Amino acid sequence: MTLPIVRVAGKRPYPPRVSEFTQTFWNGLAEGRFLGTRCAACAKASFPPKPFCPHCWSDRIEWIALAPRGTVYSSTVMHAVPSFFRHEVPYRVGIVDLDDGIRIATRVLNVEQGFGVGARADIVVLQYEDGPLFAARVTA
Amino acid sequence: MSAQVTLVGAAAVPCGRIQSPRDAAIQSLEHETLARCVIDALRDAGLPKESIGALVFSHPRPYTQQRYFGTFMANYLRIKADGLLMEVLGNGMTGGLAFDQAAQAVASGRADVALALGVNFETGTPSAEHMNLSMRATGDLDFHVPFGFTPIAWYAMDAVRYMHEFGATRRELAAVAVKSRRHAALNPLAQFRKPISVEDVLAQRPIVEPLGLYEVPPMSDGAACLVLAREEVAKSLGRPYLALKGRGFHHEGAHQISEVPNDMIALGSAQRAGRAAYAEAGLSADDVDVAELYAPCTIIEVLVAEALQLVPRGRGAAAAASGETALGGRIPVNTSGGLISRGHPPYVTPLYSLVELAEQLRHRAGERQVKDARIGITSCELGNYNAALVHVLEARV
Predict the structure, then answer these.
(1) Residue B120's CATH number
(2) Tell me, what's the ipTM?
(3) Which domain holds residue B25?
C-alpha cells in the first residue's frame, strides 16, 4: 500500500537535510512509503528514524513501515510565520498519534471546523516540485 | 556543607524597544544598558564592586554584535573575579541558568558575592526574520521545522488540547492576559501598561490559533542584574534580603516532542522540578505567597500554575477568570505582568522574574505589593516546558 500523493506547487519552503542514513526515509517517502526504525533488541520503534535505538542504545535497528493512519492530538493554524513560510499562510500544523503508538508533528490538512482533535487522519505525501514532505490528512 | 545563598540586590531597565534600527546613526548599545543595571544592583545591595567574586552572564542574542560579551563587560566595568566568569545558554531558561550558576558559585564557597546578569536586544530585527532563526530551535531541523512550526505554535497546541480536555473557554484563557495587564499597569518595568478587557483580547488578530496578539509574547529588549551573596554577607548589610530555600530541575529527554506519546499539557518537567524545589525548601504549594512563572502565552501560565500545584489540575483558567491568581486573590501569579505584558526579552526573562520576587519579598513593590509576602516561587523553561528550573525563595530581614 502506498501513500496518497498531494501535489503542491513550488518548492519546499525549508527543505530537510538528507544524510546517508535518513535518505532511506526520504527516498521511501518519494515512493509513497512512510518509514521509521525499530530496535531489534528492545522492539521499540522510533521517529524520526535513527541509526541506533534512543531507548536502549542498541545499534541493531531495522527499517519498518509505520502505520500511515492515526488520530489528531492537537493542532493550530499559523498566521505569524517565519518569512520562509510567508507564501503559505495560513497553514495548519499539528500533532498526530499514529495507530502503532508513534507520535509525530506535521502539517494537518482537511480540518473543516475547530481544531480536529480526535479526528482520524491518513498520512499523505506532499509532493513539492523539489521533493517530498508528508502531512496528515483528516478523513471525512 | 554548602553555604546558604541569598539575593541581596536587583536592578533592571524597563522592557521594551531599546535596540536601534540597524541603519540608525546613533545606536543604543547593550553594554551601556547593562552597566547601568550592574551599578544600580550593587548600590541596591550596598556592596562595593571589589566584593564580586563571580559573574554569570546570559549569553546575548545573535543580534548582539559584541562577541565574548561577558569578558568584555568585565573590562568595561573593571571587575576582577577569583571565583568564576562565564556566559550560559539554555534557550528560554538562559537567565534562570545564570541565576542557578551564580547560586552554585556562592553555595560552593567559590565566591562570597556573585552576579547573575544579562542583556537581550532583539527588536531591531523584524519578527518574520527573527522567526527564521527561532523556528530552528523548536524540534528537529529536518523532521519538524520544514512544516513551519514556531516556538509559540506548540503553546497554541497546548491551548487547544487544554480546552478539549478540561472544557476551558476562550474567555477564561483571555482572562489571564487581562489579569496580567492589570498587574503590568502597576509595574514601572512593564512594556505594556494600558488596561485591556476580555473583549479586547478576543478581538485581536490571530497569531497561532486560537491565540491572538494579546495572548502571545511581544518582542522585547531588556537588561537585568541580580546580586547573590553568602548569608553572612547579607546579614552584615542590615537590609531585607531573600534566602534561596529550594531548587528543582528536570529535563524530560525530549526536544519539543518525542515519538513517545505523553500528557503534553501536564508539563511533567515542571511538576518534577516543582516537587524537588518544594521538598528542598521543606515547603508546599500552600505556603507560596507570590509566583513569578515563565509563561510566554496565556495557556502556559495556566499549565505551570497547575504543574506547581498552585491551582488544581484543569482549574487554572477558571482560577484566572475568577480572580484567584490576581493581586488580592488567593495566590497572585505574575504580579510583574508576566511575559506578555511586562515583556519578554527571552534570554534574560527569568532574571526579570527574580527581580519581581526581590521587590515583592522585600516589600518594595508599591501598589502591586502582595501583602505580607514571605515565600515566592519562580520557574523557567525551554521548549514546550521540556525542561523546567524552579526556585523557591523566602523573605528575611
Answers:
(1) 3.40.47.10
(2) 0.98
(3) 5-125+220-237
